[in-house]
């Protein structure tokens, strides 16, 4: 299965985003084998930096380092998929401003909801950053009437064991960007969250 064949945006209504940087995973994936969804914020400005681009894209470099920080050795996106981890973004178009508007996150959460539904055996959600957290909260509010991740600082919220229908939810920090290599305390917490999620699936 290729995710891009099953979900996508048709009218591109969002402001503050670039349609030229619209990206949905196009790799061949076995949805039955995915146990962890790793949801980051937005695609990169350049397609050759996206998770599933050929070569050694920047999003793979930072994500690979995050796994390494967690004591898990991977080299390629296929290695990550083979672990049972699927990486995507909450918003499907690159941003043109520093922040992403609430309307954009809400709009894109409908696409994300359809994407999440493609993977029936998920046991954990790694929500990498505030945009991913807010997007999935919109998804869960539509499905159940309430958010799963409470409001507040991520470093405090992540201490709680959050669940959605028996599946663990890990509110974490963005692992796709240059800041990842600078923010040592966040790197440590990201590594802890990845380690716990992988531990759940053996």
Would you mind describing this structure in some detail?
Helix content is 34%, strand content 14%. It has 202 residues and is of the alpha/beta class. The protein has a single domain (3-200), classed as Uracil-DNA Glycosylase, subunit E (3-Layer(aba) Sandwich). It has a five-stranded mixed sheet with strand order 3-2-5-7-6, with helices on both faces. α1 packs across α6 (184-200) and α3 (102-116) packs across α4 (130-144). The model has no long low-confidence stretch (mean pLDDT 95).
In the CATH hierarchy, what is the architecture at level 2? Answer: 3-Layer(aba) Sandwich
Amino- and carboxy-terminal Cα gap: 24 Å
Total number of domains: 1
The structural class is alpha/beta
Outline the low-pLDDT stretches.
none
Give the structure's gist in a few sentences.
It is built from 6 helices and 7 strands; from the N terminus they run ββααββαβααββα. It is an alpha/beta fold.
